[in-house]
Amino acid sequence: MNKLLVNKPYVTVFMAVFNGEKYIKDAIESVLNQNFTDFELLIVNDGSTDGTLNLIAEFKDPRIRLLHNDGNKGLTFTRNHGLAEAKGKYFAILDSDDIAMPNRLKTQVDFMNANPKIAICGGQAKFIDGADKEITGYKVPVGDNLSHQLSLYNVFINSTLMMKTDAIREVGGYREVAPAEDYDLSFRIALKNQVANLNDKLVAYREHGNNISKVQTEKLKNCLTHIIASIHSSLSIPFEKKNILIHQNILNSDFAYTDSSEFGLLLSVLKVSNDQNKIYDQKLFTNFLFETWFKILREKKEKKILQLYFKKPLFDWSFVTFKHVRKVAKQAFFMNMPFSKN
């Protein structure tokens, strides 16, 4: 039985590492202590020059499989190396500085086995700093059909993801758009599959000064431009630089320097294009666009919220809630009072 588990594990837990000696021991232990045991821990070393390999060597568990890149090749190459070598039905990500909760694998395997249409399952995280102290984080949306939301936002915490290995391979694996290669992959998988997030906290996610998204801000911006262009292409929307920039502002929740009407025009283009091409469920997608529109009007403290709220083609009476009406009326009143500050 043990030989069978090692040779053909049900789950591949994948960990890419480059100079990760500070945290990798805790990350490995969190995987080995899972209450689901039918897995391999596939670690791909991307040319580490610190004590990472010595720490890994301390573990004698046969479920650990250590591979090496020929030098430092970068995250996209490393992820694809791991994908090519993965033996499991499911491919679970854990970054080398994060910690998996003890029931993480069992929770996701049970959910995905019970919901075979789901190709990606993520979840919530406890956020910690470099000293393991819990810090304020955020919640990702929960549901079993979030594919359409990836058109505007990355709804996943990457280190919580469990994916069907075949689904990743079917779309060609990771593309060279690091540090946003995880978002790009999720979006492409979601074009043909359902994706989900659970409400369970699956990992302790470490926020610190070395997080890739913080040290490569300009590169991230350029990569997001390519991903948004792919999103527009999937909906048969012609490439327009202005629309790409507006879309990127929505993705980054940066609403300050763009007029409300321009956001509304882009969201309307997305709706009409989806109505024509039927990429996403029309009702779900239009409702999502409308909620995004409402969020923008609220964030911008839009004076004309009363008339813009009912803007076609985004508006539908079935989307209206009492909470919406109350907030719209309150904002319209206070933003148009003589004493209102803008």
Can you walk through the features of this model?
With 342 residues, the chain is an alpha/beta fold. It has two domains: 2-209, Spore Coat Polysaccharide Biosynthesis Protein SpsA, Chain A; 235-335, no CATH class. It is 43% helix and 15% strand. It contains 14 helices and eight strands. Strands 3-2-1-4-7-6-8-5 form an eight-stranded mixed sheet, with helices on both faces. It is elongated and about 70 Å long. The chain starts with a helix and ends in a 7-residue tail after the last helix.
Q: What is the secondary structure topology, with strand pairs?
A:
Layout: H1 2-7, E1 11-17, H2 24-32, E2 39-45, H3 52-57, E3 64-68, H4 75-85, E4 90-93, E5 99-100, H5 104-114, E6 118-128, E7 162-164, H6 165-170, H7 181-190, E8 194-206, H8 212-215, H9 217-234, H10 241-251, H11 260-277, H12 282-299, H13 305-309, H14 322-335
Parallel strand pairs: 1-2, 1-4, 2-3, 6-8
Antiparallel strand pairs: 4-7, 5-8, 6-7
Helix pairs in contact: 9-10, 11-12
Which superfamily, in CATH terms, is the homologous superfamily of the largest domain? Spore Coat Polysaccharide Biosynthesis Protein SpsA, Chain A
**Strand percent estimate:** 15-25%
Q: Low-confidence stretches at least 5 residues in length (pLDDT < 50)? A: 1-6
Radius of gyration: 22 Å
Strand order, sheet with most strands: 3-2-1-4-7-6-8-5
**End-to-end separation:** 69 Å
Q: How many domain regions? A: 2
Q: Summarize the biggest pleated sheet.
A: 8 strands, mixed
Figure out the total of helices: 14
Q: Provide mean pLDDT, rounded.
A: 93
What is the percent of helical residues? Answer: 40-55%
CATH-derived architecture of the largest domain: Alpha-Beta Complex
Q: How many E-type strands?
A: 8
Topology as H/E string? HEHEHEHEEHEEHHEHHHHHHH
The CATH C-level name of the largest domain is Alpha Beta
